[in-house]
Design brief:
With 158 residues, the protein is α/β, with parallel strands linked by helices. Helix content is 30%, strand content 24%. Helix 3 packs parallel to helix 4.
């Protein structure tokens, strides 16, 4: 079983050799404009462009809670757009994070990582605008990825 590594740094600049997947949580309404996605968009236009197109064409594809879209941004780097939050606002249903959807995303992500021999890099997914708690997310990450021998690095932005 791989250990989960937590380091200070920028998840858009993964610190590892070989193929890498940068994972983050998106909402199910097609919104992209706050939080970690801004750092992604500054670095590469493709993840936002592909996410918006995926959302626009959603009636004919798998877009929805628990779905993952892999977008290649360099020869050995992909961004995983993971739909793990319902809407963007905290309301009567609590914060937008949906832990069951995040778990489905991470399970699918593990398959993509194993297929490519890739390590996974992420901020503390679901814990910013989505309103999730790392104490609930971390066991999902270790269970879906580390337990399947996928190396995971979590970045705390300084």
């Amino acid at each position: 079983m791989e250990q989960l590594r937590v380091i200070a740094g920028d998840a858009t600049s993964p610190q590892a050799k070989g193929p890498k997947i940068i994972a983050h949580v998106c909402n199910d309404i097609g919104g992209w404009g706050k939080g970690f996605v801004l750092a992604l968009s500054k670095r590469w236009p493709e993840p936002e462009k592909e996410f918006r197109a995926w959302h626009r064409r959603r009636s004919g594809n798998d877009f929805g809670l628990g779905a993952v879209q892999l977008v290649r941004v360099r020869e050995d780097v992909w961004v995983a757009n993971m739909v793990g939050q319902r809407g963007i606002r905290t309301g009567s249903g609590g914060p937008p994070i949906r832990y069951d959807a995040v778990e489905r995303c991470l399970t699918a992500l593990a398959g993509h990582a194993l297929d490519r021999g890739a390590s996974v890099h992420m901020p503390r997914i679901g814990c910013g605008l989505a309103g999730g708690k790392w104490s609930r997310i971390e066991p999902l990450v270790t269970g879906a990825l580390c337990a399947r021998d996928v190396a995971v690095t979590v970045y705390d932005f300084a």
